[in-house]
Amino acid sequence: MLPNHENSKAIFWKEGAPLKKGDKLVQANLAKSLEMIAENGPARILQRHDSGTDCPGDAEKRWLDH
């Protein structure tokens, strides 16, 4: 399933294959979201921002619209 989703593949795959035990998993967008929560509290991540600059990618828009 993951290979069909480019965003997931970019995170969980390396050089065309799934990450293996011992590979480093980097989730920059998750790190940015957690930093935002730590600095501003959990309500900040739930606010809608028209600029799209406060939330990594467009996950916030999809989350709040559904």
UniProtKB/TrEMBL annotation:
Under the heading InterPro entries, the entry gives: Ntn_hydrolases_N
**Pfam families from the entry?**
G_glu_transpept
Keywords, ordered alphabetically = Acyltransferase, Transferase
The UniProt annotation puts the region (Disordered) at 47-66
EC number(s) per entry: 2.3.2.2
Q: Which GO terms describe its molecular function?
A: leukotriene C4 gamma-glutamyl transferase activity
* Principal EC category: transferase
Name of the protein in its database record: Gamma-glutamyltranspeptidase
Please report the organism this UniProt entry assigns to the protein. Answer: Escherichia coli
What are the top taxonomic ranks of the organism?
A: Bacteria, Pseudomonadati, Pseudomonadota, Gammaproteobacteria, Enterobacterales
Gene, per the UniProt record: ggt_3
